[in-house]
Q: What sequence folds into this?
């Protein structure tokens, strides 16, 4: 309380927002208050006029009532205004309070003839074309506030559990195992050569040797530089000292595919921690984070509004079943990959439902993932212990003690969390901490051991069993809100062919 | 309390960290506990052995006492261990509690002969060469925890004041006014042409036209794409709907200069808000944020340890004077640029102290900034209302009512916050919201109006007076901790010629 007072005095230049005013109205109903915002709608009658004013701070705007109709004369949709008046109990339905306006000032006009954000329903494509203005719509505004509150809940969960947030690098020398879906960077004044030089062609087996590696003088960093596709490897280095670390950080993939689940630039929650020894434990942390997140949003008016909008378009309002997951008495379903494939095969044999026949050793197709989460489990499902051949080199090989080994190393200690509507929301694993097995995996995957000298050092010097996961933040927002495409789950989306502003 | 119980049950796979154990020791002193961590030092005597164990969660590690000396036999610096025992009051000086060890297990060995992180003092250059391991040092560990707690305090301040956090884009079409210090990007499989195509050569005056702009097929985004140098313009678009927004986001400058204050990749706190009409108000928010930040760190053992380390190297421990700023009864000093130049000129006339003679219309050199903050004010100083010719196009022109106009438009409503030891920590301004004046400024700065069509739209449709600022996060950490170079203020620094990992 003391802190809060100090804060508001220090920042006295910030008058209360509409959200703050509605949450703590002035104690006297005749106190004069001032509201700044934009006109969302205006309805002028003979003896009274009404307008909805939004400052973007809350899901419902504030109803303003003009008994002096002249005050509302200049109000048009989209104009920015400063209103003075009294906050009174509202006799109308739909809001508890309304502003009885005594003074109105238009700060910034908005020509209704040319304003691109007309009141009529605008298509998502139209709004993508106007992404500098689309935060003015109710849905995108609610989505932005939901992102903010989701990130806050994530920070709370990890801090409460002893994690610290780390800013991992965006520019990296790691080219994502040469997969070619990375972005390469160079100074504008000195673009990269058109033939990428082989990654770390001259680096030797100790990390410090990178300073003496043969440099290409035209490279700003003396190495080819890429945008990160994942912070995991960097987080592992920090987790080998700080034990529990996480990051909410941008990641980049130069994908050509155009789906509702992929962006070229997206945000990822990634966590890594030491001294964990089972995939089950990693799943427990993920489930704990998501339960906390849902619990923190039990009364979110943003989630409510977004699901209501979805229902208005003919979709189902899945909010109740989502929120119920927060306190579900049983742990969320966990299945091994082998068990999942058996289920898929049995279903396919009965119904011939799939385009791709499920088979052990093959990746799960999106139709398989959807069936598992949406029809079989009807909720989130952790699929664990995939075949090693389907997964990256750093995942820990299962041995004889693991639940689902066929031969040592045939499966790895990993999981994907599949959720209805979205598919894969989280992926994680134990990381191989055994030096010899990791070296063998690097070789088996055809990677250059010299590139991973620093990563091997983490095992060589006081390595510890550890694990972690990555969660796509836009997919999380899509799951929580029912927003169909991740392109509407971030302020200014970027995908192949598409980058405005 | 209820929430905390739920949390720990959901994440029961996470045993308490050393920080948590020391903050809430088990109620029974004979309770068996388990500690995971790395050996920081070990001292073996005949009848007893001591080791300091760190799991990175707290500034002091945990002292472990082995009355069974055999248990400590395999312990070496850097090894990861799991210890079991009882947490007892420590008879020794330097710690309140110690672990009396009954079982010890080495999880990951560390050969003391080859371990790169020997106990002896390691130079900053050596640690930069081993940045995958340097989080294991006390200073870098403390810095990482300080970054985390500083970010948390920032989130708290802005949330308490009605702001929401927005993830602004990293990849942008804005080439930073062609300044050439940007990084350009392209898919690895399809590098950009060596001659950058002129920025938005074909875009027209409405934002939506970008979709129909002539595309260069080789560009992934159909436009040249850059890494952002600042989120400001994007934040302004969101602030024109959400009123109060901020971001803590990576920014990039392809600078060639090698200083202790510059990185190629750095994190910036940026905030923008609508309905603010004076630079003084913007400064008040910045000062409020920094006071809150310092107040939140009054008992920070990380800040204490970092200043102690600085003092041990012969520097001064400035922590008391920093913390005193949090509750200083007077607002921090504010000076106009004109007043600052007058002071600098008078000082220079008396002492001939500067290499560059101060003069109205010229930029403040770093020697000038240092003198103002370190010698004249001896604390933070806001310098306001710089000549328009020194500042970017978007800053609001001062008119006759402003404190320091010479002719209309001669100065702009801006400020730099200078602090001892660092120099410029924050820069901000009102943004020009008047359409005609902004158009004129774009022309005067030789920019292409078509590139800023979307930015002009923000003024055309319901524009509002607004302002904001940017704060370099690494510089903030340097200011709070006394760490000399920003290269030690981030986990894995990148600068010209330098990017490991």
A:
């Amino acid at each position: 309380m003391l802190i809060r007072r100090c804060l508001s005095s220090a920042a006295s230049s910030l008058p209360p927002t509409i959200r703050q005013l509605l949450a703590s109205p002035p104690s006297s109903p005749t106190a004069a208050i001032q509201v700044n915002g934009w006109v969302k709608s205006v309805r002028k009658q003979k003896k009274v006029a009404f307008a909805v004013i939004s400052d973007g701070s809350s899901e419902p705007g504030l109803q303003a009532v003009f008994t002096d109709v002249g005050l509302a004369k200049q109000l048009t949709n989209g104009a920015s205004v400063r209103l003075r008046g009294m906050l009174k109990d509202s006799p109308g339905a739909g809001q508890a309070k309304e502003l009885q306006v005594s003074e109105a000032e238009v700060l910034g006009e908005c020509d209704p003839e040319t304003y691109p954000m007309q009141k009529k329903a605008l298509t998502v494509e139209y709004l993508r074309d106007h992404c500098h203005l689309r935060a003015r719509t109710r849905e995108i505004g609610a989505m932005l506030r939901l992102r903010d509150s989701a990130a806050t809940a994530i920070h709370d969960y990890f801090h409460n559990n002893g994690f610290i947030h780390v800013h991992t690098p965006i520019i990296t020398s790691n080219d994502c195992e040469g997969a070619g879906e990375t972005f390469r960077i160079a100074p504008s004044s000195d673009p990269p050569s058109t033939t990428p030089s082989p990654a770390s062609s001259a680096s030797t087996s100790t990390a410090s040797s990178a300073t003496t590696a043969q440099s290409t003088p035209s490279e700003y960093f003396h190495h080819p530089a890429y945008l990160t596709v994942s912070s995991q490897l960097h987080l592992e280095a920090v987790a080998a000292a700080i034990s529990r670390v996480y990051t909410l950080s941008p990641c980049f993939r130069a994908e050509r595919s155009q789906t509702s689940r992929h962006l070229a630039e997206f945000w990822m929650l990634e966590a890594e921690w030491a001294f964990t020894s089972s995939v089950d434990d990693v799943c427990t942390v993920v489930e704990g984070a998501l339960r906390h997140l849902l619990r923190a949003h039990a009364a979110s008016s943003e989630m409510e509004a977004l699901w209501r909008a979805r229902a208005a378009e003919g979709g189902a309002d899945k909010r109740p079943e989502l929120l119920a997951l927060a306190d579900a008495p049983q742990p969320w379903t966990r299945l091994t990959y082998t068990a999942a494939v058996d289920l898929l095969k049995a279903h396919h044999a009965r119904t011939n439902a799939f385009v791709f026949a499920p088979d052990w050793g093959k990746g799960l197709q999106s139709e398989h993932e959807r069936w598992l989460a949406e029809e079989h489990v009807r909720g989130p499902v952790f699929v664990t212990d995939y075949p090693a051949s389907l997964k990256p080199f750093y995942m820990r090989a299962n041995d004889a003690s693991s639940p689902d080994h066929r031969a040592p190393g045939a499966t790895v200690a990993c999981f994907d969390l599949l959720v209805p509507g979205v598919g894969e929301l989280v992926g994680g694993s134990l990381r191989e901490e055994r030096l010899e097995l990791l070296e063998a995996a690097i070789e088996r995957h055809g990677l250059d051991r010299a590139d991973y000298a620093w990563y091997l050092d983490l095992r060589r010097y006081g390595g510890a069993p550890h694990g972690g996961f990555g969660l796509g933040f836009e997919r999380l927002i899509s799951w929580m809100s029912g927003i169909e495409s991740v392109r509407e789950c971030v302020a200014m989306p970027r995908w192949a062919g598409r980058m405005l502003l």
Observations:
- Chain A touches chain B through 147 residues (CB under 8 Å).
- The radius of gyration of chain A is 27 Å.
